[in-house]
Amino acid sequence: MNANKQTINRFYTAFQQLDYTTMQGCYHPEAVFNDPAFGLLDVNETRAMWEMLCKRAKDFSLVYGNIKILDEEYTTCEWTASYRFSKNNRRMVNRITAHMKFKDGLIIEHTDAFDIYRWCRQALGLPGILFGWSPWMNKKIQKQAKAGLEKFMNS
Asked: Which of 29, 44, 109, 128 is least crowded, fewest Cβ atoms below 10 Å from its Cβ?
């Protein structure tokens, strides 16, 4: 099996088990992460984000698949997380495409792409329906997510 595919399987199998320590070990020391909720994170923030999300997970399940090896460095896969949003206990189903770049068998760049408007509608209800499409709401979500991550890292 391709080394990058092995890392992806290790990462998402650990995520299914909420094993953030194994997930953290899948990242290169110079890794970066980016998604619509948190924005751009360095490796320490990325590792802390997965720990925070795993520790706060409620009623969580995850499936992944459709792993595509694009070349020696780049891989994509699709994953779907079902969970309760920690702020209000709303049921969430988030369908995500991960784009990963690898170095030395570890993830050095990881971008999760998902429909932020769909996420907002599920997470926020009426405010998400009305404003979830707007750049203003997207910036507000990122600001709150990063503030929550910073608080978690400092606790």
From this structure: 29
Q: How far apart are CA 122 and CA 83, in angstroms?
A: 11
Residue with tokens 């990242």: 27
Characterize 88-107 residue by residue with b for buried, 16 or more Cβ atoms within 10 angstroms of its Cβ, and e for exposed: eeeebebebebebbbeeebb
| pLDDT tens digit sequence for 96-130 | 999 999 999 999 999 999 999 999 999 999 999 99
Structural domains in the chain plus CATH codes:
3-154 (3.10.450.50)
pTM of the model: 0.93
Residue 106 and residue 128: Cα distance in Å, rounded? Answer: 36
Kindly state the helix (H) or strand (E) to which residue 79 belongs, with its residue range. Answer: strand 74-84
